[in-house]
C-alpha cells in the first residue's frame, strides 16, 4: 500500500498538472507560447550518458548535460511546479537506470531540504524516479541543514555537506542513489557515506544531468 508521503506527492502533482492545463503556458525549453514542451525541445531531451568519479571514488552516471534545453526544462519543473514535464524527462533518466539497477538493488534518492519541500510541495527527484518506473525507497534523511551551496567552491561545498545524511539500515544490499544534477559530487559522496555506514554492499549514483566542467563552480541550489 502506498505511503502517506507517496499519496500526498501524487495529489500535489495532480493539482499542479490541472493548473497547468487551465493556465496559459509556454514551452519550458524555448518559450514558444501555448505548448508545454515543443517538438524541437522534446527532441533535445535525448540521453547521452556521461560517466565520472567523484573525489571520493563514487561512480556517477548522468543522462544529460545541464545546459541549454535540458537545463531550462529541469529548472521549470523544479521552480515553476510544472510537474507535467516529468513525463518528458523521466524516460531519459529511466534509460540510464535500466542499465544500472540490478535485480537485488535498492533505488533511493537524495532528499530535498525541508525548505525546498515546503516551497514546492513535492520532491522533484522522487517524482522523476517514480515516473521512470522505479519507486524510490526512502532511506536517507538530513540531520542538519547545510548552507546554500551557491557561490561555494569545491572544498567549501564538501565541508558544507559533510555529515548531513544518515540512512536507515540497508545491510547487504546494493544501492542506486539518484539525484537531479551533479556538480562537484559533494552531496552524493556524503549520501553514499551514510548508505555504506548503514550496511550498503555497494553504491552507484545516477543523475538526470551533470554540469559542464566550466560550470562546476557556479553553484545552483539543489545541485550536488
UniProtKB/TrEMBL annotation:
Coiled-coil annotated residue ranges, if any: none
Protein family per UniProt: Belongs to the ComF/GntX family.
InterPro entries, alphabetized: ComF/GntX_DNA_util-trans, PRTase-like, PRTase_dom
Organism encoding this protein: Microbacterium testaceum (Aureobacterium testaceum)
Protein name stated in the entry: Phosphoribosyltransferase domain-containing protein
Pfam families linked to this entry: Pribosyltran (PF00156)
Span of domain Phosphoribosyltransferase: 170-212
Lineage of source species: Bacteria, Bacillati, Actinomycetota, Actinomycetes, Micrococcales
Amino acid at each position: 500500500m502506498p505511503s502517506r508521503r507517496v499519496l500526498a506527492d501524487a495529489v500535489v502533482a495532480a493539482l499542479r498538472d490541472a493548473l497547468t492545463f487551465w493556465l496559459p503556458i509556454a514551452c519550458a525549453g524555448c518559450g514558444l507560447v501555448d505548448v508545454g514542451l515543443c517538438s524541437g525541445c522534446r527532441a533535445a531531451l535525448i540521453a547521452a550518458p556521461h560517466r565520472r568519479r567523484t573525489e571520493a571514488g563514487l561512480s556517477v552516471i548522468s543522462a544529460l548535460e545541464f545546459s541549454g534545453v535540458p537545463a531550462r526544462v529541469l529548472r521549470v519543473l523544479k521552480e515553476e511546479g510544472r510537474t507535467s514535464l516529468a513525463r518528458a524527462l523521466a524516460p531519459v533518466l529511466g534509460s540510464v537506470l535500466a542499465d544500472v539497477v540490478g535485480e537485488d538493488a535498492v533505488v533511493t534518492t537524495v532528499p530535498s531540504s525541508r525548505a525546498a519541500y515546503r516551497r514546492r510541495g513535492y520532491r522533484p527527484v522522487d517524482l522523476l524516479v517514480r515516473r521512470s518506473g522505479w519507486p524510490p525507497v526512502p532511506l536517507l534523511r538530513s540531520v542538519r541543514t547545510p548552507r546554500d551551496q551557491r557561490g561555494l567552491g569545491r572544498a567549501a561545498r564538501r565541508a558544507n555537506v559533510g555529515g548531513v545524511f544518515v540512512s536507515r539500515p540497508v545491510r547487504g544490499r546494493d544501492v542506486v542513489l539518484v539525484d537531479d544534477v551533479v556538480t562537484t559530487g559533494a552531496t552524493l559522496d556524503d549520501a553514499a557515506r551514510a548508505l555504506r555506514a548503514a550496511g550498503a554492499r555497494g553504491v552507484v549514483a545516477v543523475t538526470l544531468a551533470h554540469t559542464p566542467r566550466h560550470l562546476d563552480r557556479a553553484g545552483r541550489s539543489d545541485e550536488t
